[in-house]
Amino acid sequence: MFAWSLRRKPGRKVGFLLLVVLSFLVLRRLDWRTLIPLWLRHRQLGLTAGVQNFMLEDSTFWIFGGSIHYFRVPREYWRDRLLKMKACGLNTLTTYVPWNLHEPERGKFDFSGNLDLEAFVLMAAEIGLWVILRPGPYICSEIDLGGLPSWLLQDSGMQLRTTYKGFTEAVDLYFDHLMSRVVPLQYKHGGPIIAVQVENEYGSYNKDPAYMPYIKKALEDRGIVELLLTSDNKDGLSKGMIPGVLATINLQSHAELQSLTTLLQSVKRMQPTLVMEYWTGWFDSWGGPHNILDSSEVLQTVSAIVDAGASINLYMFHGGTNFGFINGAMHFNEYKSDVTSYDYDAVLTEAGDYTAKYSKLRDFFGSVLGTPLPPPPDLLPKMSYEPMKPSFYLSLWDALQYLEVFLDTVSIGFMDYKTTQIIVPLIQGYTMLRILVENRGRVNYGDNIDDQRKGVIGNLYLDDSPLKKFRIYSLDLKKSLFSRFAIDKWTSVPEVPVFPAFFLGALLVGSAPFDTFLRLEGWEKGVVFINGKNLGRYWNIGPQKTLYLPGAWLQKGINQVIIFEEMVSGPMIQSTDIPHLGRNQYIH
Predict the structure, then answer these.
(1) Max mean pLDDT range (253-267, 278-292, 497-511)
(2) Cα torsion for 280, 285, 287, 291, to the nearest 10°?
(3) What is the pTM of this model?
(4) Fewest CB atoms within 10 Å of the CB: 271, 277, 440, 479?
C-alpha cells in the first residue's frame, strides 16, 4: 500500500504513481497487465449504501465518526485532537469547509496556515481516519452567516441559498477553486474522503426547489465521485431529500431516532441509517447559561443508535473556539449572538482535555470493535501566569478618529434590536455625533439569514430629521491595524480613560509556553489580541468568563497583549489553568 503526501496536480500524481509501479514491476519482472484489474478493483466502488448496511468495497462498514473543525483549532494541535479521536475508537472525521474564511474577499482565496484543508485531511489519513467532507456552500456551524461570505450582501438583490444568478455565479467560482483541491483527496483517487455532503439542512430553509439539484450537479461536474449525502433535522427532513443522494438525520435524543428512521423509510427505499449529527452538547449565547448534556445520557443515546444498527457521527467530538469574529447568532423571537468558546460540552473540551463523555464512549466503542484501542495521548499541560497590568493606552478617537452612540467623546447610549431610540442631551454650541457600529455575529440559521446586512443601512434621525453626510471609517481589527499605531501615540494609562480604547501590555512567559485561560475581571466588553492573534470577544454578561489562550500562540519571553475595550477597563488581566464557561444548565 502506498501513502502519498506529495502535492501534485492529479495528472502528475497518477503519472508519478504509474512510474513507481512500473519500476517496481520491471525489478520484479512481472506483467503489469495482470495487476491493473486488482488495483482498479481495490478503489473502484468506494463507500456505498446497501439495503441495511454501508459497504466499503466488499466489506460491511460502520461509520463511527466525530466532528472537528480545523478552522476552530490551532494548527499546532490538529494532530493531538485527531489522535484522541482515533484513541476513542472512531474511524471517521467529519468537517465543514467555511467559504467565508477561505474567500474573505471576492476572488481572493486563503488555504494557508490554520485554513490548510488539504493538510488537515491528509493528517487524518496518516492517523488512520476516513473523512466525510461537508463543503456547503452554506454550513450553519454556528459561524457568521452560516459560512457564507458577507460580501455576497453587497448585491442589493441577493437571494442566498437559491439559484439566483448572483449567488450561483459566486458559488461556481468558489467550487472551481475548492474542488480542485478536494478531488485528489477522494477515496477513488487514493485519498481518505469517502463521502461528500450536499449543502446542509436545506429542508429547514427550502426556498428554491432547483437549488439542491444545482449543488449536486455543481459537485459532480467538478469531479466529486464519492457517495453524496444530505443532512437534515426533524424540521426539514421530509423537504431536504433529493434523488440519488443518501439522506441522513440530525438529532439529540434516541427518542427521535425511531420516528426519523420511519419517516426516511416511508419516502425512500430501504437504506442504512446514518445519524450525521448526534449533538453531544450545545452552543452558548451571550447573556445565557452554559449548556451541558449529561455524559450518561450521551452514552445511552449513542448505545441506542448503534444498537439500532445505525452509523453515527458525534457533533461535536471537539468543538474548539470561535477565534476572531467568526461566531454566528440566532434570531427567532430575539437576537442572540454566540459566545467565543465553542466548547459545546463536547467529548473533548475547548482545550482538548478529556471528559467523562470521552471515557464512557471510549469504553463503549472499544467493546463494539472488540479490538484494543490506541492509548489516549497525554494531556497538554496548562499554566497560570503572573497577572498582567496594561502599561499603555490609546483612545479610539486618537487612533482613528473613528466612531454606541457618542456625543463628542461621551457615551450617551446603546442601540440594538430592542433599543432603537436614544435621548440626546442638549448642549450649548456645536457637538459631534459619533457612532461605533459592531457586528456581534450574523445569523447562521433560519429565515433571518436573508436580512443580515450590518452597519447603519438606513437613515438616522434626530427628532424627525434625517442626518446626512456621515464620515465613515472602517475599524478592521487585525494585526495590520496595530502595526500602523505609531509608538509615540501610546500614552500611560490615565486615571479616567476615554472609551472605547486600546490597552497595551506584556505577558511574560519564563519557560516553555503552555495553554492558559485569560480572566478579565473588571473589564466589560471587548476583544483580546495576543501577538497579533485575535482570541475573540469577552463580555461581562457571560456566561463565558475566560478566554482560551493556546500555548502554541505564545513564545518564551515577552508576548504582546492588546485589549480593545468598549466601556470600562479593569486593573489587570489574570490567567488561570482552569476554564470558567459559566453557570451550567442541562439541555432538555
Answers:
(1) 278-292
(2) 0
(3) 0.90
(4) 479
- How far is Cα 316 from Cα 532, in angstroms, rounded to an integer? 28
The whole-angstrom separation of Cα 284 and Cα 536 is: 14
CA-CA distances (angstroms) from residue 98 to 60, 233, 585?
32, 20, 29
Question: Closest Cα partner for 318 from 343, 293, 339?
Answer: 343
Please tell me the predicted confidence (pLDDT) of residue 418: 80
C-alpha of 228 from chain center:
22
Query: All 3 cell numbers of residue 462?
Result: 434626530
Residue with cell 489519513: 125
Q: What is the 3-state secondary structure (H, E, C) of 201-222?
A: CHHHCCCCCCHHHHHHHHHHHC
CA distance 405 to 386: 36
pLDDT band of residue 380 (cuts 50, 70, 90) is very high
Amino acid at 438: E
Question: 3-state class of 487 per DSSP?
Answer: helix
Q: What residues contact 555, with CB distance under 8 A and at least 6 apart?
A: 509, 513, 531
381-396+476-588 maps to CATH 3.30.43.10: no
Domains of the chain: which residue ranges?
43-369, 381-396+476-588
| Segments of 319-368 assigned E as strands | 329-331, 335-337
Lowest mean pLDDT among 31-35, 235-239, 307-311, 315-319: 31-35
How far is C-alpha 437 from the geometric centre of its chain's CA atoms?
24
State the chain's mean pLDDT as an integer: 89
Active site residue 201: yes
Residue type, 465: S
> How many angstroms separate the CA atoms of 196 and 185, rounded?
11
Say which residue the cell 500611560 belongs to: 492
Single-letter amino acid, residue 574: Q
**Which residue among the candidates 142, 226, 277, 350 is catalytic per the annotation?**
277
Specify whether 277 is catalytic: yes
CATH superfamily of the domain spanning 43-369? Glycosidases (3.20.20.80)
The answer to which of 5-14, 250-259, 305-314, 376-385 has the lowest mean pLDDT is: 5-14
For 145, list phi and psi in degrees, rounded to 5.
55, 30
